[in-house]
Request: fold
Amino acid sequence: MTACVDDREHEPAVIRMGNDIARHLEYLPPETAADQIAAHIERFWEPRMSEELLVHADRNDTTMHPLLLAAARRLRPPPA
Amino acid sequence: MRQRGFAAPAPPPPMDSQRAAAVRAIAERHAGSRGPLLPILHAVVEELGHVAEEDVATIADVLNLSRADVHGVVTFYHDFRRTPPVAHRVELCRAEACQAVGAQAVFDAVTQRYAGDEDVEIGQVFCFGNCALGPSGTIDGRLRGRLTAELVDAELEASR
Amino acid sequence: MTEQTASILIEPDYGTPRVEGEPTAHVTIDGLEIDVAPGTSVMRAAKEAGVDIPKLCATDRLDAFGSCRMCLVEVDGVRGTPASCTTPCTDGMVVHTDSDDVKALRRNVMEMYLSDHPADCAGCARGDCEIQDLAHRVGAAEVRYGLDGANHLHDATDATNPYFAYDPSACIVCSRCVRACNEIQGTFALTVEGRGFDSRITPGGTDFMSSECVSCGACVQACPTSSLTEKSVIELGMPSRTVITTCAYCGVGCSFKAEVQGSGDATRVVRMVPWKDGAANEGHSCVKGRFAYGYASHRDRQLHPMVRDTIDDPWQVVSWEEAITRIATGFRAIQDTYGVGSIGGIASSRCTDEEVYVVQKMVRAAFNNNNIDTCARVCHSPTGYGLNQTFGTSAGTQDFASVDHTDVMLLIGANPTDAHPVFASRMKRRLRAGARIIVADPRRIDLVRSPHVEASHHLPVRPGTNVAFINAMAHTIVTEGLHDEAFLRDRCEDVEAYLSFIARPENSPEETEAETGVPAADLREAARLYAAGPNSAIYYGLGVTEHSQGSTMVMGLANLAMLTGNIGREGVGVNPLRGQNNVQGSCDMGSFPHEFPGYRHVGIDEVRGIYESLWGVTIPAQPGLRIPNMFDSAVAGSFRGLFVHGEDIVQSDPNTQHVEAALRAMDLVVVHDLFLNETSRFATVFLPGTSFLEKDGTFINAERRINRVRPIMPSKVGKDEWQVVCEIATAMGYPMSYANAAEIMDEIAATTPTFAGVSFARLDAEGSMQWPVNDAAPHGTPTMHVEHFVRGRGRLMPTVYVPTTEATTRRFPLVLTTGRILTQYNVGAQTRRTDNSRWHPADVLEIHPSDAELRGIHTGDIVELSSRVGTTSLPALVSDRMPPGVVYTTFHHPITGANVVTTENSDWATNCPEYKVTAVQVRVANAEAARAHQEADAVTLGSGS
Reply:
């Protein structure tokens, strides 16, 4: 879930930025939202940042917004 | 003090807030009419005696003019006096018809006589429309014709 | 078109403004026949026919006034001698300008002027006074009144303004200055006081510095005698040469005549005078471009490359070669250890297009990555994203002249009278002519109410709630049936989904009122006004973009314009007021981690292929790091080298502690700048840069207008900046060189379709051009999206309001928003080193009286401003311009450290920092903090000009 405001300066930047994108696309149907979040990351994020996010996703990091997690899965399916 | 990116060089003089409120009330009373600035200035002089420096900003604010705009109008007309009125005011005509019958001499004499007198102010007007009875003038608002310096003195005595 | 003259360029003055219309009035002037538009003044027609009628109070930038009585002429069939400036031409008119009677009259009038003109007039001596010129022309050899009559020769000079002096003894009360201040600048700071012989020009009965004057210099320019003169002219004498160039301050991009003395290294600027043919400014200027150019020769200016081993060591001057070698070997060493992506560059939004192009080329071709970004990141990157999504273009849709056809302006999140003053003057002129303005801003800015201008609506939108506000506007328009169905049907897509979204009750003015603080009734009226037009235009600034929903809000503005069909003609559109002189250009030049020049994504193979084959390198197809990402990665240890070109990120970027930590963590920070700025405290290599007076290139303003920047003098540091960058690339193993800046623009034109027709030669011929410039639009494109949008159909994007996470709390109950002021510019690097600091020597915190009273704060108190990330202190100003609950400051002085308190919050799409919403607390500073602030302040001011 999104960290509360006081934790924002302490959470990893990729989680904070990714969750921000998710919250702003939350209004879309979940599948569309996840697609668009993934597309946004692909279009604008540097690969190492995406990689860092995907590492968090692989670990099922609970600080990730569910739509962000879903988007991450589209960029790289979860490890078997 | 509005900060427009301009730091005030010195603190402004303390505003008489009662006066400012009075001036604002006068200005707002006339603000809706056409050409409100002159009626406002007349009313300020009539009700408060003169147009003070700080009144300019208040009037400008109500009418949404610049202070320079209002300053230009106030200084154009002698009747919008800038200093509080004194006890007595004499206004002498200096226009051509009165000049032809000696108004200049009257003016010079009266001005000299009351120079330094804090209670008497001498002003000039260009035509009261009383040309047949020149030299004309008003003493504390009373129009008189065929004036001489002595007659002015007498009128002032009567006022005191 | 002469761009560089061997002598002073004097533009012809036709006396009265041009009148539109067909030239159907046939007039004869001194036997010469000419056709003009009816209503053109006789004076102007004469000038156009080649007859120069003497004048003093007339100038073609102002309406005719008719006070000086020099321009009298005879007209057949008309009694007497009318003034030619106030006499309109009619068909068949026959005019005589030089009969014996007229000549005698002129002499007589001249005699009167000369009877009250100083015999030792300094302006006459300089050749700067039209009285002297005219006296010679009309032949007033003697003054029959004598020179001992009543006069004004002993009136005292007012030299309180740092840049110009007012000497009433030379004044002829032609009132050109008063009219310039009224009609052109729109400040109304001057007037004629008194009457008759006692008439004198005055800035409202006080001196210039204490008056309402904003020091734009229009009066000085208008004055025909030397009564109002630049102090620099008094000191240095008259200039001998003109170079036409472009201002280096804001995004208006005013064209100036740089009037100089000397040549080569000995060139000296005497004054900067606005150029009448400048398409962006049409002969007007503001205090910064007009007068505040002294920073270019300030003693703080660094002229030599310097290096040091650590940031705690003193700087050592070295040769260019040594500095460049250190940079090249340093960056390569970092890449060898930490990987290709461990270094990057920040391009400047103040430098020329050619310089920026070369920096992004260095990063892509020599650094071999896409880690290039620019300050647009922190200001208008949401404009790029939002307008790209909706229209297909990342720039404004109109030119400035468009406002002359606007009926309703919606101004949101911008304060043009402070930040884009010359354009604001244009807006005010249009407003005085009857247009209306809706101002959406938490503060009561000048355009809400100031002399002669009053907004129809001031909607005090609470910071952070913009999207809720714009949704309520659109909701009103749609649910009341005020939208343009034909336009939506013919020109847009995704219409139905948007209409049903916006019509939802949660988007109504009534339901959003509690959140936005805007009364529903006012909002509805404003929305109706905007929809009614007929021509409605949106003007916006960083109060829209610097938010966590900045991109969403830009799309919201685009939606509003599309809903009402306000696109594709003059007088309408979506107009971002770009901040910096070349932030538009910097973006256009691809200084973005994800885009090449022309806003083409790095992932597009055909586009990447153009650069790869031209440059002979492989370029990554994935985006690089944005500036905030660079800082995060630096702290994490993976980003270790940074080339900072013409930016002061330590002062301008949010969350200063974070920025400083990032820079400290790096192995090599290189700063290329004019001064040792805050960022250079963390650098180990410093390269001296060139000011705009030394640059040869182009700037692009908010209108997409490409303007020439021409060198007034050669580089003071021995090289041009683009040369330095080429040498760094070459030293890193990628040979890069150009013969001159024009060649760089040629490469830009060859590779960027929107610049295809651009070259220095074309710009010199046209004056300036707005991109796109191509075969379809060989002279440029003033208005965009005329037939269709750049992306085809305009896309309506649903804009759901998501509140910022930056909510006020009991600990931080106030909201801080930031902005700019007229006399200082951005981080103040330039303006603090000029006399502009006389006006704004410190940033102050504006606070509403009720908030101040609660805290025992009075104007002048030093207060402590704190947020969850930091604390700083600064003086307070109690002002009811603020709404309760909101405080405001500027960030022009490093000592203020306004960015010590701003946070890492940013726009979701672009990471543009949310400067405009920070939860803060304010309290009176304790004595110790106050003293420390004052001491530090004194040190800073002492090192100023």
In short: Residues 941-945 of chain C have pLDDT under 50 and may be disordered. The domain at 399-575 of chain C is CATH 3.40.228.10 (Dimethylsulfoxide Reductase; domain 2). The CA atoms of residues 845 and 903 of chain C lie 18 Å apart. The interface with chain B takes residues 187-195, 202-205, 209-212, 214, 418, 446, 449-454, 821-824, 839-842, 844, 846, 859, 877, 879, 881 of chain C (CB under 8 Å).
